Amino acid sequence: MDLVLLDGPMGTQLIERGYPVPVPHWSAWALVHAPQAVGEVHREYAEAGATLHTSNTFRTRPAAFPDTWAQRAQQAVALARDHVPTGHRIAGSIAPLEDCYSPHLSPENPGPRHAALARVLVDAGADLLLCETFPHIDEGLAAVEAAVATGAETWVAFTAGPLADLLTPDEIAIGARAAVERGAAAVLVNCIPAKLTAAFLRPLVDLGVPFGAYANAGHTDDGIGWSPDRDGPKRYADLADTWRQMGASIIGSCCGTGPAHIAALYARLE
To answer: Among residues 147, 187, 206, 247, which is most buried (max CB within 10 A)?
Structure first.
């Protein structure tokens, strides 16, 4: 499979531009107060080389927008579509119902709520559904089932969290196989420190479907992100090159990175 270059994080870029990302809205706050900034971030990732763009729907849920969550999700898809070139694809983001670093908060029977967002995203024109940043295997699988039920192409990304301690590589392997059995067309790992991602990517190699990673920058001492270190994007691209050599065909970046990291990936991997 040819390389698919994902975009990078929305929240990190909004913060760098001086916008707040308050609980419970996080980056979705900008859909109400600074939609032009959301569009600008999408445009910059496209200019850097990304061709698959994730909608800013990580927190477009009733808990954040009780009366307007569906409209916000639709708006997020439209903003992505309107700011990237024709032919680029939009991935509708479906995230954990609670905190993505707190698997113990995962609720019982999450499927119907994931199904509601999945339906809105598909109807809004998302080209595929990305169930992302799931540290709780069962909730991730519930999201996959809900997304697949729409008939849309469905990808899933599991996370071991910023300390790489929420899931083990073996647990991700079990979740990945179960996701493929449920219809996931691709499996990824995301928001794991870039320096530790390879160990969690390795169990995906023999799944029989495309796989990949979009990692976070790790600790500031890693020199990969969270700062204007000009060598950070190159360090990230060097690590991503090892993922590519493992067979990864879907690669992007997550928290602490930005368009410069995507541009470095494009230069190194394309």
So the answer is: 147
